[in-house]
Amino acid sequence: MAQKLLIIDTDCGIDDALAIIVALAAPGVKVLGITCCFGNTDVDNVCQNVMRVLTVCQQTQIPVFKGSAGPLIGPVAGFKDHFGTDGLGDVLENSEIWKGQIQKEHALHALIRLVNENQGEVSLIALGPLTNLALAVRLDPTLPQKLKDLYIMGGNMEGKGNLTPSAEFNFSMDAESAYVVLEEYTCSTHIATCQC
């Protein structure tokens, strides 16, 4: 059986950390790279959190790329401390070691490159705000046609949210990017909505 190839785009808080761990443990799955985006915390903390997860899972050979620090339009909304200020419960000391482990290539360029190198084979897993995906499709409008499929954690059903009474967190953090992705990613798309 051929390996399932994944790229994970994340704002790595506790929920995303668990999703990454599950992906790393899944048989027949190869994570080509992890792209980081603001969301649960700032993008630097997200990068550090991803490196912490990969270190615990002994998978530090997986490349990690720093991406969007804010939404397409307007300022970054204040970060919530639902998962602590660092996104992982503030239980670990901050370190600068992770900075040397992050790839120099920007997440947008890495996303486009990895998909182009594996056309028709990559499942893109979007666990946070969709800013990196929206910017990537602006740089390469053919990107969605080269994906195998797209999985999104975001949005809501019946207008019930988890950030406000009607807004789900990931889509609310960058609603314009969510719009771009839902309009322009024409590949097979699956959305796991908030069940609030």
From TrEMBL:
Coiled coil: none annotated. SUPFAM superfamilies: Nucleoside hydrolase. InterPro entries: Inosine/uridine_hydrolase_dom, IUN_hydrolase, Ribo_hydro-like. Residues 6-189 form the Inosine/uridine-preferring nucleoside hydrolase domain. One of its GO terms (molecular function) is hydrolase activity, hydrolyzing N-glycosyl compounds. It comes from the Eukaryota. Belongs to the IUNH family. PANTHER family: SI:CH211-201H21.5, SI:CH211-201H21.5-RELATED. This is Probable uridine nucleosidase 1. It comes from Sinocyclocheilus grahami (Dianchi golden-line fish).
